[in-house]
Write a structure and sequence with these properties.
Layout lengths: L1 H23 L7 H4 L18 H20 L11 H25 L7
Length: about 120
């Protein structure tokens, strides 16, 4: 029990020290050069504060979702060493089914189309 409390205390102390350093360390002296948008050495063409399209975020979230799916299903070939490999296969199939239904729904709603 002492080891757990010590580890948590060290983690908390390190976190607090890093938070305090992050407030004191940066130089907060904005000037026009720092505040201007950077466009590969060219003069800025417009404001860099334009909002992104919501479709960009939707595609990004879908990418992350399917990327995490790969991470969840990666240990599946080694599951045959478990006491109940059929249960593991069932849950993996359930995850794939839910993700496939979600993809079909997004596709049917037109959420994957870039142009309207």
């Amino acid at each position: 029990m002492n080891l757990i409390i010590t580890t948590l205390a060290i983690a908390l102390a390190l976190t607090l020290v890093l938070i305090l350093i992050s407030f004191w360390l940066p130089q907060k002296a904005p000037n026009p050069e720092k505040l201007s948008p950077y466009e590969c050495g060219f003069d800025p063409l417009g404001s860099a504060r334009l909002p992104f399209s919501i479709r960009f975020f939707l595609v990004a979230i879908l990418f992350l979702l399917f990327d995490l799916e790969i991470a969840l299903l990666l240990p599946l070939p080694w599951s045959n060493q478990l006491p109940s490999p059929l249960l593991t296969f069932f849950w993996a199939s359930a995850i794939l089914t839910l993700l496939t239904l979600g993809l079909i729904y997004e596709w049917a709603q037109g959420g994957l189309e870039w142009a309207e």
